[in-house]
Amino acid sequence: MNKQEILKMGLSTNGKEKNSAIAISGFNVWINDVHILNNINLHIPNKKITCIIGPSGGGKSTLIRSINRINDEVPDMTIKGNIQFNGKPIYAPSIDVANLRTQIGMVFQKPCVFPKSIKENVLFGVQHLKKIDKHERLQLTEENLKAASLWKEVAHRLNDKASSLSLGQQQRLCIARTLAVKPQIILLDEPTSSLDPVSARAIENMMLELKEQYTIVFVTHNIQQAKRIADHLVFICEGKIIEQGAATKIFAKPSHPQTRAYLNDEFCEC
């Protein structure tokens, strides 16, 4: 990239973030010979909600799964380019991937609760990072269930199996478990797609509260949902970023005809 392109992305010319939680430049992903992500240049602003939208199969999930290296185990995957977090390239050989994933948490499309109690699910990750006494266990459980807007619903049943919760409650429990390890960034890959509208709206409201403390990257197929919660919008199609910027500006007046077509008709010819 030239200097103008770098500055437009919100980066400094020495490659470090400038008001960005994540800075991505020239990032490509191939699986076998299929080019999944094509020259991605993107900055993710601090303590904002960045929504990534676009048609199915366009590379959205591959992109956010690359940000905390969940894709590392995908067979025959090749990457090229740079993703920086806190000014450091996350694909450098010296990076501790386990530690990276505590700082960049991930919540998936379907709730993934462990066959343990509600309380043990909240503490599952953090208790592997440090020793916690009985008092701290209770404190962490309450603190993170409150942050995930779940405490009032489950405070009286913390020893019940997590699987006894509704799907919407299970998804919020997964978010509480992610919050407990104190990440800086939360990645969410279509976290409401399998939920009813009431549960989905509860998670949206929670995200709006959490962005005061966390940087949030939220993949969604739901354009109305993106309108409700996005500060920053990224439209990706066939592995390329078509348009990115302030959500209010793009929704009001998209610059590219492909973006306009997708926002109006949920269809585009990329």
Short description:
This protein has 270 residues and is of the alpha/beta class. The chain is 36% helix and 25% strand. It contains 11 helices and 10 strands.
Which percent band covers the strand fraction? Answer: 15-25%
* Through-space gap between termini: 23 Å
Task: Please tell me what the overall shape is.
Answer: globular
Query: Could you give the count of β-strands?
Result: 10
What helical percentage do the residues reach? 25-40%
Instruction: Write the CATH architecture name.
Output: 3-Layer(aba) Sandwich
What is the H-and-E element order?
A: HEEEHEEHEHHHHEHEHEEHH
Enumerate the spans where pLDDT stays under 50 for 5 or more consecutive residues.
Answer: 1-17
Largest sheet properties: 6 strands, mixed
Q: Could you tell me the mean pLDDT? A: 89
CATH C-level class:
Alpha Beta
CATH superfamily: P-loop containing nucleotide triphosphate hydrolases
Describe the structure.
This protein is of the alpha/beta class and 270 residues long. The protein has a single domain (3-265), classed as P-loop containing nucleotide triphosphate hydrolases (Rossmann fold), CATH 3.40.50. The chain is 36% helix and 25% strand. It is built from 11 helices and 10 strands. It has helices spanning 3-9, 60-67, 97-103, 118-123, 134-147, 151-154, 167-180, 197-210, 223-229, 247-252, 257-265, and strands at 20-31, 34-45, 49-53, 77-85, 88-89, 104-107, 185-189, 215-219, 232-237, 240-246. The strands form 2 sheets. The chain has a 6-stranded mixed beta sheet, with helices on both faces. A 4-stranded antiparallel beta sheet has the order 2-1-4-5, covered by helices on one side. Helix 5 packs across helix 7 and helix 7 (167-180) packs parallel to helix 8. It is globular and about 55 Å long. The model is unreliable at 1-17 (pLDDT under 50).
